[in-house]
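cron nightly-structures :: item 1 of 1
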Amino acid sequence: MNIDKIRNFCIIAHIDHGKSTLADRMLELTGTVAKREMKSQLLDSMELEREKGITIKLTPAHMQYKGHILNLIDTPGHVDFSYEVSRSLQAVEGAILVVDATQGIQAQTLANVYLALEQDLKIIPVINKIDLPASDVPRVSAEIINLLGCDESEIIKVSAKTGENVDQVLDAIIDRVPAPAKSDSNELKALIFDSYFDDYRGVVLYVRIFEGSLPKNANIHMMATGSNDIALEVGVLNPKMSPQSELTTGEIGYIVTNLKATREAKVGDTVTLTKTPAKTALPGYKNVHPFVYAGFFPVSNDQYKDLKDALEKLALSDSALQFEPENSPVLGFGLRIGFLGLLHMDIIRERLEREFKLDLIVTNPSTDYHVTLTTGEELDIRSASDLPDITRVAEIREPWAKGEIITPKEFIGSILELIVSKRGIQKNISYIDTRAVIDFDAPMANLLTDFYDQLKSATSGYASFNYELGGYQAEDLVRIDFLVAGEHIDALSVMAHRSEADAIGRSVTKKLKEVIPRQNFEVALQAAIGARIIARETLGAYRKDVTVKIHTGDRDRKAKLMEKQKRGKARMKRFGKVDIPSDAFTVMLKRD
């Protein structure tokens, strides 16, 4: 294929701005998918993607239109999957920026635009949903012109649902997006921008060929991981696999390998030939580090092996997923899993429960902390219960996030109050037409639980939020332990700033009082920092009327029975065990 006739592009947008619907219309218009096979959100093949209406895994598609080959990559829109977006942007020369005509520019739109500008891509602005009564095309056009500095004539107004003007988008891709750069080198350099595990075929890689060509059955080498393998099959996706004899410079396609785990061919790695390896790898490869951790425990310990097997299967398709064994005296054996964000955690939990039929207890999500001991040793702890004795700790550093909120101007005051309440620092406020962009720094741990919900409440649902990991800062952090009937429950322990510890202790003990059932004896629910109790709630005992069987009014007999009951309750208090329900381990996530 003539390289001048190839156009590689991706679609970037905020969640729910119509990205996947626009991809559907393109597949229809180009005749890539037959009318009878067409269904909405065709490229979102996972059940959860279709149900939630979001894209979780990016998907490539190979289309032919007016004598050109158009290679599309449909990318996720959520901040948790921004690493996937950045890899796909490296594999293309152009990006279609889709903005909802009713909502305008949102936080993730901005983040994706910055990523695209970093890669020096040609951006084609598209306003979608112009058929809706609530659409405000002039206002959204002004926002896009303000952001990109483009002309009004460059913005294409479409309705992906009805297909109106979608052909103009395809024409703009051919006219405006540059063809891939030609290469004289015969050394193969292919960027892996995604990979997944197929139960029957092994690891399948999605690649963009930058230099050289890759024939079928060639011996290949992954430059970052050092793995060697064979390209059992190569081809393009339209959007089903279509085998070819080879992939050449500028093309986007797939490689079926013999590998048994995606960790052997990570996203961002460079594929080259074993016989004539490339001297340098393509830029941009980095290891993805999770920064949200949660304990996953099966309700029955019999399911521990099933949980581990299920996670190993999911990890084959998700190279960002990391886990290690964890043991709790109360919950038994489980796994501590690292995620890229709360949505990522929610998706994995739902997949484990649906696809593998597991009943799970999930502990409160936390982030990781860097601890320096008095001996100078450095530790990376992922759970509050792993913190060493505080007398041995010299310094604890917690991760901070760089956040960006886009909001109508009238909500600025309430958002700044919310940021301050989370120990955040407001850095800058700028304006896009009628809306404000607020940049701030805040501790990651304070953004994990219900910050997004509180932001939506404070702004009547109009604000959007995007964040990325900043650095680690030393803070005055303490571990808050929770005791139920004098027994320390390590799975409930949390790290917190000293100034917030008392409020968290009071809040969590109140919530525990609501979720732990009453016993036949009085139960003390306590929060403590070290040996100092900072909050307490008392769960009252059931009162059984032992005098009901006495038919006479003899006062001495009643007093004797009451005294006997009192002694029995005191004994139960010493030896009684409190059964803690699974709700108790997610009290931090419960809204007040």
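cron nightly-structures :: done
The domain at 292-365 is CATH 3.30.70.870 (Alpha-Beta Plaits).
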